[in-house]
What we know:
- The chain contains two helices and no strands.
- It is an all-alpha fold and 103 residues long.
Amino acid sequence: MASRGNKRPSVTNGYDNLGVLSRVSRSVSDSQLVQRAKSTASDAAFVSQKLLRSTGKAAWIAGTTFLILVVPLIIEMDREQQFNELEMQQASLLGAPATASPK
């Protein structure tokens, strides 16, 4: 007759060969709260990726619009200011009273 010894009966829940820490870890990772948190994190990542992409497009549009419309205006205003300064300098050298031209 074979002796049974002091063996515990086996549990048939799929965690037979796992230690206590592994069983607790698996039960926590299988919980509803963890699954919901993972889903929420995934949704947040998706939304932030979409937001980043649309922000990049908006920045590109704003940057190119600035280069096309505003930079030439700034250059032209600087040119006109330099021209007015040159006229005032020439007028002062020739002895005419320096007057600012009305705009």
